[in-house]
């Protein structure tokens, strides 16, 4: 009985691990730069979010406001680095494809982590556990493509996204924050 | 009423402070080159690796650029950090050279740091093959050559971009002069295809793909390992496809039986 109760949560985490492995194996030497692997990964996460029980996202200005505010905070350090240390100009022709895939994967990650898995973890163990578990999963899912060095920052970002999810009451706010912060990276690198 | 309003507000303030503290800590613990993508979905499109001497069959690219930075020395005190970075997208080399690590000749007013791409000359590393260009890190002054005799600091790091993100990860190696033997450096992957190591001094740096002597000799045709690698995505996709309906079935069953 307990197994049946926990399956949507534990199964979601196992499914996430499988999706990460699928992405890495599909991407091959392109690593994180493979759009195909990114789209397949995002689609796997959306399907997992739906089967694990995705609460209906709330679409309103309050959600957008929370998301934009967190995105602005996440962009402060990259912006300061860009101004003080310079950066690189990305090839403009790549922007449409890149931004479409980035937005898709960012929203997909949020639908699973701060959507379905957050709700299942909250049902089981409360708010703090939901934030902690989804932040840890968020940090770990980036390790195979970017290395262990990103773990501390991604863990912190995961906690921030979970906190905004709690404060705003819907997955929409962290999805907006995640998407805007990722897209801003194009100009802040 | 005001007490009721105050409680959630103080919780929000506490949560915001915790988040900002964690973010600050996260950035402090993150290497300098690990700029976005960090919360990402797709890596930034890098241009193809620019070789000094490209391997046979490699596409035509522009020549790799030299990373350069300069700084003024005033009353014997140099710039805090020289940071030569090459111009490729993304940069193939970035070196952090603190002035405290340098022995600056008396009367110097100007320092110039370079990270110059070269083809391998002299002895090759004994434990593998160089992957990409060799980068020679030098610092010169208007009063002659500069040596790095001081202690490396936490800013003394070098990052090299590999020609691809293919794993296993390479090892960064260093030699002080072209005649010196190569030595392994502690290497950390700090990006999709970027590797960072401490910068013990001026000299040559390269990424090396370590040869595993235990590996069996290549045989004609497709190796079993490669074949397994080719089918892995299908196996994983199959597992996911089987897994998702199982979760859905359990949830539907629970809903029918009146559980949460």
From TrEMBL, chain A:
Q: Which residues form the signal peptide?
A: none
Q: What is this protein called?
A: CAAX protease self-immunity
Lineage, broadest ranks: Bacteria, Bacillati, Actinomycetota, Actinomycetes, Kitasatosporales
Q: In this protein, which residues make up the domain named CAAX prenyl protease 2/Lysostaphin resistance protein A-like?
A: 94-183
Q: Any stretches that span the bilayer, and where are they? A: 37-54, 66-83, 95-113, 125-146, 166-188
One example of the protein's molecular function in GO is:
endopeptidase activity
Organism equals Streptacidiphilus jiangxiensis
Q: Which InterPro entries match?
A: Rce1/LyrA-like_dom (IPR003675)
Q: Which UniProt keywords apply?
A: Hydrolase, Membrane, Protease, Transmembrane, Transmembrane helix
Which GO BP annotation is one of this protein's?
Answer: proteolysis
UniProtKB/TrEMBL annotation, chain B:
Annotated keywords: Membrane, Transmembrane, Transmembrane helix
* Bilayer-crossing regions: 232-250
Q: Out of the domains of life, which is the source?
A: Bacteria
Protein name, UniProt field: Uncharacterized protein
Query: In the record, what lineage is assigned to the organism producing the protein?
Result: Bacteria, Bacillati, Actinomycetota, Actinomycetes, Kitasatosporales
